Amino acid sequence: MRILVTGAGSNVGKGIVPRLRAAGHDLVLSDLELLPDAAPYAGLPFVQCDIQAGFGLEGAAQGCDVLLHLPAWHGIHSRSKTEADFWRLNVDGTFWALQAARSAGIHRLVFLSSQSWHDHYGKYGFTKQVGEELCEYHRRNHGLRYVAIRPHDFTPWGDDYLNRYGARLLYGGVDREDVLGYVEAAVEHLGPNLPGGADPEGLVVDAVRPNVYSEEQVRDWEDDPLAACERVFPGSRDLIERYAIDLRRRPSVVAGGDEGPGAAIGYKPTRHFGTFLDELRGLDAAGGPDAVHAATCPY
Questions:
Q1: Are 41 and 8 in contact (CB under 8 A)?
Q2: What span, in angstroms and rounded, lies between the C-alpha atoms of 299 and 284?
């Protein structure tokens, strides 16, 4: 398929472009800023465009089969961006992208939404709610097929590998590689065209980590976090104590996680606190605390 990727220089854009290239798709990239002429962008057609106004996007969309729409200000930008900033990028930008897709005859969309959709009246969540409504409007009125992906927290973790990344996976965080997996699966899911006259599909998929423990297993977690963690993740106590990972709060259980939120698009997440512990154990064995504390966020 030929895919127009808006926000190609974003966190998800940087990760998904090489995946889609490896899968054999033709890509057209768009962003506000010029992209580096290096991997993963080297050799791909690029259209510089301010999505908030949309000028130039119609040309980029010509000949494409799918729109992958990524640009947004997120919750981490709430302190530095105003309500007007959020509206212009998250709402106006989505509107103009959909208009460009419609004018180019694109009837398939993957829209990067957010779990903040549930915070309907937060500055960020409200714009994501409107964004999803724009997708649904175009489905009902213009025959658009879409998948809206709602990731949980997968922000870059800076130099706090142990808690901002690792422990976060106990409290709602999702690994970025799984987010990319959900997005790629959504693109592939939209591959086949529906037969004429069929009601176009509109899916909303929660991009969350898998449940690897039950509510019952963590019910008494706060009474003795180390013992509770050892029961769920055997062999974890030594690592938790050595690296002072903060596990005082009871871990969350993903609502609907046992049913597999990604089942509708054929994706099953694989990363969780247990896989983090495996990675930590490998770093510790290879280089001890120096290697662990030198770990840097790959995105």
A1: yes
A2: 22
Answer yes or no: are the C-beta atoms of 16 and 183 closer than 8 Å. yes
Report the distance separating Cα 145 and Cα 110, nearest Å.
Answer: 9
pLDDT one digit per residue (tens) for the chain, 299 residues? 999 999 999 999 999 999 999 999 999 999 999 999 898 999 999 999 999 998 889 999 999 999 999 999 888 888 888 999 999 999 999 999 999 999 999 999 999 999 999 888 989 999 999 999 999 999 999 999 999 999 999 989 988 999 999 999 999 899 999 999 999 999 999 997 665 556 889 999 999 999 999 999 999 999 999 999 999 999 999 999 999 999 999 999 987 665 678 999 999 999 999 999 999 999 999 999 999 999 999 98
Exposure string over 247-272, b if 16+ CB within 10 A, otherwise e: beebbbbbeebeeebbeebebebebb
CB within 8 Å of 243: residues ≥ 6 apart: 162, 280, 289, 292
> Quick one: 145 exposed, middle or buried, by C-beta within 10 A (0-12, 13-18, 19+)?
buried
Structural domains in the chain plus CATH codes: 2-151 (3.40.50.720)
Concatenating the DSSP letter of every residue in 2-41 gives: EEEEETTTSHHHHHHHHHHHHTT-EEEEEESSPPPSSTTT
The overall pTM is greater than 0.70: yes
